[in-house]
Amino acid sequence: MIGIGFGIKLKVWGDYACFTRPEMKVERVSYDVITPSAARGLLEAIYWKPAIFWKIDKIHVLNPIKFDNIRRNERPGKISARDVKTALKGGDVALYQDSTADTVQRASLVLRDVCYVIEAHFEMTDRAGPDDTIEKHYNIALRRMRKGQCFHHPYFGCREFPVQFELIEGEVPVSYYCGKKDGERDLGFMLYDIDFSDEMKAVFFRACMVDGVIDVQKCLCYGGVS
Amino acid sequence: MSEIIKNRYEFVLLFDVENGNPNGDPDMGNMPRVDPQTGHGIVTDVCLKRKIRDYVDLVKSGNAGYDIYVKSGAVLNDQHKKAYDYLGINPDSKKPKEDELTKFMCQNFFDIRTFGAVMTTEINCGQVRGPVQFSFGRSIDPIFQQEVTVTRCAVTNEKDAEKGQTMGKKQIVPYGLYRAEGYISAHLAKRTEFREEDLELLWDSLINMFEHDHSAARGKMSARKLIVFKHNNELGCCQSHVLFDKVKVERLSHDLPSRSFDDYKVTISGDMPNGVELIEKL
């Protein structure tokens, strides 16, 4: 690690979200709130370079947590690499999925009307070159967020749930849960992120929400499990 | 072959349904999908993508490079070989590299180039992300779901022969104007080689997809407006919600429920942020 970048606050919102729990992913059930991993992916959709990695500090849950059920026809299979190889070599294979025969109906329990503020910073990786200054990356990220630019459009867990985003340069809006009785919640063990350096190991943490704010780094200090 | 697209786009599609079911909900006995919290009608992203695939399969059937990976209904096998010929790949070539497979699929299949696909070949979860992203379509006003009972003057089984007729149910929305929004990323287009001509085909399919999807269940569905926002670069010039807010749809009939597109007024504010071009395709 070469250095730690300055923090940003990004307000993100959308009609739907699905941060799928790994234990319930055939018929998807979302976590109650965005995972740090999804928040990182969202930031990376806006700006990322191999020289930096985003770290999520806090997640402000601005809207009440609501769920909705959606059942869709889905395709259970994946494209077989072997068939593609055969086709590439000119072999005679049926390279398609038949959407009437190869269908399963799956329900998703998704979140509705979500709005978060993500507080994050980035750290430099060992892939940073001499030109990779913290200021440079910070300013590019800020510029993109201010102008609404992105590498590809960010989404809440699944691509059909797009994210609208806005850089927060002043105060963070007050959460629905601020001062409420149910604003203090133990959200249980949640996925923190996948550790790509360690054979894609999943890291979990005990997420606690206080007044609508999840202090991710503090929760991690109380113990991450991998 | 035309160039790979170099601009970010957003688009708003307005489409309506008259006496039909735009998208049935398997959880509710095929009643039209509805947001239980607000009563607004919903059409899923995958429902719209299905229609685009079917349209492209229809107009480009047999054309090299325009095959459809996720097909519906009857499948014509011999189409595929044409796509392989198009690449002119030497059958004796060495064992293909993994990314060669992905490239091959992107070049041959319009839907993989456009929407992406999950392939077992890549290391990173094995998926290609396509440049085109859809959100759920949502009706402007809460919809009214109606169940219509119909009769059939014939029976299926011999044992029911005395009955003479059977009853069935149809689920319809008398009228609903829906709005769907979408995003096209120029950066992801680079990875799947989504070209200008593919983009044109996508616009065509958005305008015409309902014309080739008539059925007893759908009723009368049509695309009413397609508004495209073209940014003058790959990253874009402003937030997408700013652009989406430029398209306002108002209901004119306040005393009666809406029953036609004339009951709505669509206003498109022309003052675009710097670098964004407004294109009314329909």
Describe this structure in words.
The complex is a heterodimer of chains A (226) and B (282). Chain A has 4 helices and 10 strands, in the order E-H-E-E-H-E-E-H-E-E-E-E-H-E. Chain A has 226 residues and is an alpha+beta fold. Chain A is globular and about 60 Å long. In chain A, strands 1, 2, 3, 5, 6, 7, 8, 9 and 10 form a 9-stranded antiparallel sheet that branches. Chain B is flat. In chain B, 24% of the residues lie in helices and 32% in strands. With 282 residues, chain B is an alpha+beta fold. The mean pLDDT of chain B is 89. In chain B, helix 1 (45-60) crosses helix 6. Strand 4 of chain A pairs parallel with strand 5 of chain B.
Topology at a glance:
The complex is a heterodimer of chains A (226) and B (282).
Chain A: E1 4-17, H1 36-46, E2 52-61, E3 67-74, H2 81-88, E4 97-98, E5 104-124, H3 134-147, E6 164-167, E7 185-195, E8 201-210, E9 213-215, H4 216-221, E10 224-225
Antiparallel strand pairs in A: 1-5, 1-6, 2-5, 2-9, 3-5, 7-8, 8-9, 8-10
Chain B: E1 9-20, E2 24-25, E3 31-32, E4 40-43, H1 45-60, E5 70-71, H2 79-87, H3 98-108, H4 110-115, E6 116-118, E7 127-129, E8 132-134, E9 137-142, E10 146-152, E11 166-184, H5 186-192, H6 196-208, E12 220-231, H7 240-244, E13 247-251, E14 264-268, E15 276-280
Antiparallel strand pairs in B: 1-11, 1-12, 2-3, 4-9, 6-7, 8-11, 9-11, 10-11, 12-15, 13-14
Helix pairs in contact in B: 1-6
